[in-house]
Specification:
By secondary structure, the protein is α+β, with helices and mostly antiparallel strands. The chain has helices spanning 2-39, 52-57, 83-89, and strands spanning 44-49, 66-68, 93-95, 97-106, 110-114, 118-124, 130-134, 146-150, 160-162, 173-176, 181-189, 194-205, 208-214, 221-224, 231-235, 238-241. It folds into two domains: 1-39; 42-241, no CATH class. It is built from three helices and 16 strands.
Length: 247
């Protein structure tokens, strides 16, 4: 008799377990997407690359002129093979333009649509300081599609997605698989003033709206326009004052 009771108990437990599974599985599926949204597990991460090494592989030439706010350039000799690294290690900021490389990485299979970035921006119109660079160089040399931000535009600044000749293109769309990466280039231009800026990039990820933040390791990017600033050039192993209008 005890054996019969034990068998009946196991049968009842199995029936109740099956019923509970049938009840809660649809509920779990129903709340899966809201739960992903609350926990911010949208299956997509963003990496921001400032150094020019990877950017050059994408067709981007790095800035070669840099702003120093105290009005003087560092006294040591620059590393001519890595002007960007030398200047930024000493507190310099990009002059003329800033390039950033955004890398999206998927943790699962999903479609991604990228929207127009929102630019968070403030400006010092007449900064004190100076800028420096090597003799006889300049220009961006950009030949890749990218988001273009013109920091001199009135707020709110609206980026455009352009090709090398300024032609407009459709916004990026990716069909990403697990561990796949996709890259987005951004170039911000400044002619005058000191600009601090960061981005919020709206995306639609598998039907969910996601806002990705892009900044310089928690701080705003800094891009400075050359107009109104004195220039020091590195030539023949020394710093020299450039004549007015040289750059």
């Amino acid at each position: 008799m005890p054996d019969l009771v034990w068998v009946l108990g196991m049968v009842v437990a199995a029936v109740l377990g099956t019923a509970a599974l049938a009840l809660f599985t649809p509920l779990g599926r129903k709340f899966q997407r809201p739960w992903r949204r609350v926990t911010r597990d949208h299956g997509l991460t963003l990496h921001v690359e400032r150094r020019p090494d990877r950017q050059q592989l994408m067709g981007l030439s790095p800035p070669l002129f840099f702003y120093f706010p105290d009005g003087s350039v560092p006294t040591d000799s620059p590393t001519e093979t890595d002007w960007w690294g030398w200047a930024h290690e000493r507190g310099g900021s990009d002059v003329g333009f800033t390039n950033i490389l955004l890398t999206l990485q998927a943790s699962q299979d999903l479609p991604v649509e990228v929207g127009i970035p929102e630019v968070h921006h403030d400006v010092v119109h007449e900064p004190a300081g100076t800028f420096c660079g090597p003799e006889g160089v300049g220009g961006n040399g950009l030949d890749a599609r990218r988001f273009v931000i013109r920091l001199g535009d009135d707020d709110p600044i609206t980026p455009t997605y352009e090709g090398m000749m300024g032609e407009k293109h459709s916004l990026p769309r990716f069909a990403m698989t697990k561990n796949d990466t996709s890259e987005i280039l951004v170039t911000a231009y400044a002619e005058q003033g000191l600009h601090r800026w960061s981005l919020t990039i709206p995306c639609v990820v598998a039907g969910d709206s996601v806002a990705l933040k892009a900044n310089d390791d928690g701080k705003p990017f800094v891009t400075v326009g050359r107009q109104g600033l004195p220039l020091h050039m590195w030539a023949d192993g020394m710093w020299i004052d450039a004549p007015a209008g040289h750059y």
